[in-house]
Amino acid sequence: MPLIDPVTMSQPAGKAGATQSTKAKDSVSLTQPVPIMPSSQAQAVKHVHPVILLSFFLLRFNALVADPVSTMTTSLPVVLAIQAAYTIICLPAVGSQAAKPAKKLRPGEKKKPGSEGAGSNIAVTTLVALMLSIVAAVVLHVVLVLFGAPFLTHLPQTFLCSLQLSVLGLFPLFYTRGVSNKEWLEILSASAPFDEAFGGMIGASVGAWLGAVPIPLDWDREWQKWPVTILCGIYAGYVVGKLLGGTVAFGKRFG
After folding, report:
1. What is the pLDDT of residues 169-222, one digit of tens each?
2. What percent of the chain has pLDDT over 70?
3. Which residues, in sequence order, are CB contacts of 177 under 8 Å at separation 6+?
4. Residue 108's Cα: distance from chain center in Å?
5. How is this protein situated with respect to the membrane (predicted)?
6. CA–CA dist 139, 81 (Å, integer)
7. pLDDT in tens, 103-123
8. Residues near 57 by Cβ (< 8 Å), separated by ≥ 6?
């Protein structure tokens, strides 16, 4: 019977252990999806939110076609209020205790009093997220122009459209992710894990792109004016992306 060097036998086990350790570290370093808060109120708002959002858009659609600038201006505070209510009730603020992974208690260890209430100030986080969304709208305006939006004309329409896109798609992300370089690198490279916030942003972006398709068609319809169909795509895409990101696609990544 041939002799086997015990050192040689131990090497594969050591390599396997190192591989498992590396994989564990990689999984920990990856950005994690943000789940909806477990409260019954958050679960209810999660389902009602897209219905309210689409109902309000459909209610204002005829006015949007007739006067896009005035309608987008007056509807923006309502959309922001809807988004803020959904975000505050359903999503954990960046840095809050609810946003951190739950720590398993050791046998006999008691949860520290007041740990659930610790974390970032929701009002401050909401205000910062709003300010960042307004700044991001300027960047989105430039992106829309690069993708074919009118450059010297329709400036109010384009910027208000950018604001609507930013409030829908980026405000929840700023609220839950903050300004972390690592997390935003994954978001901008479309490699972040899907959740409701990221799914909504992807859906709104794709919807805006698809919404531009009917504009150059020779149908001579009033609703083909800039940027009515873009907004239709943004709202429809946001709702679809949000629903998919919170259900079947939750935690998954592109590729």
Report:
1. 999 999 999 999 999 999 999 999 999 999 999 999 999 999 999 998 888 899
2. 80
3. 34, 94, 183, 184, 187, 197
4. 39
5. Multi-pass membrane protein
6. 22
7. 454 565 555 544 444 345 899
8. 231, 235
* Residue given tokens 């990101």 in the structure block: 245
What sign does the CA torsion over 164, 166, 169, 175 have?
negative
